[in-house]
Amino acid sequence: MKVLTFAASSSSKSINKTLATYAASLIKEAVVEVLDINDYEMPLFSEDKEALLGQPKEAKAFYEKITTADALIISFAEHNGSYTAAYKNLFDWTSRINQKLFQNKPMVLLATSPGPGGAASVLNAAVTSAPYFNGDVKASLSIPSFYDNFDVNANELTSQALLTKLTAAVSSLTD
């Protein structure tokens, strides 16, 4: 099974990338590819830009990565209660290639933040909208207070309750 994972964040120190990578590592016998959305940077999407540029090679490459995956794990950073601008731009460009960009792939959607909200607002938006873009959401989980629940030095969740939930979530990809 090939699992594609990434953080919907452009931060080089993204805790969501840490979480997504850790979550994917819990799937035994999976081939995991970790993407950095900074590798798919494009001009801000607009119909005018699309008419001028066509479909950027970065959007095509991102879409192809989804095509070749068997499952997706995405962890969402929250900026002012919503998607990061970097992710939203990548999503907008890629959805112009195919509005059903998630291609009926089984998905686990995650989110975390340093605070107690755990980026739950953006996670809710992602879970609610994914089916419209042909995402098969198998599970979702918000991890609140990331630094209280994740040991970055040991690279592991320290909360047994959250680890149990995360393990169940990623296991849903192989059920």
What does this structure look like?
The protein has helices spanning 15-25, 47-53, 57-68, 85-97, 120-129, 146-149, 160-171, and strands spanning 2-8, 31-35, 71-76, 106-112, 136-143, 150-151, 156-157. It is an alpha/beta fold. It has a single domain (2-171), classed as Flavodoxin domain (Rossmann fold, 3-Layer(aba) Sandwich), CATH 3.40.50. The strands form 2 sheets. A 5-stranded parallel sheet has the order 2-1-3-4-5, sandwiched between helices. It has a two-stranded antiparallel sheet with strand order 6-7. Helix 3 (57-68) packs across helix 4. It is globular and about 50 Å long. The two termini are 12 Å apart. The relative contact order is 0.18. The mean pLDDT is 97.
Question: What does this entry show, briefly?
Answer:
The chain has 175 residues and is of the alpha/beta class. It has a single domain, classed as Rossmann fold. The chain has seven helices and seven strands, in the order βαβααβαβαβαββα.
Q: Spans of 5+ residues with little confidence (pLDDT < 50)?
A: none
**What is the radius of gyration?**
16 Å
Structural class determined from secondary elements: alpha/beta
Biggest sheet strand order reads 2-1-3-4-5
- Tally of separate helices: 7
Q: Globular, elongated, flat, extended or rod-shaped: what is the shape?
A: globular
Strand content: 15-25%
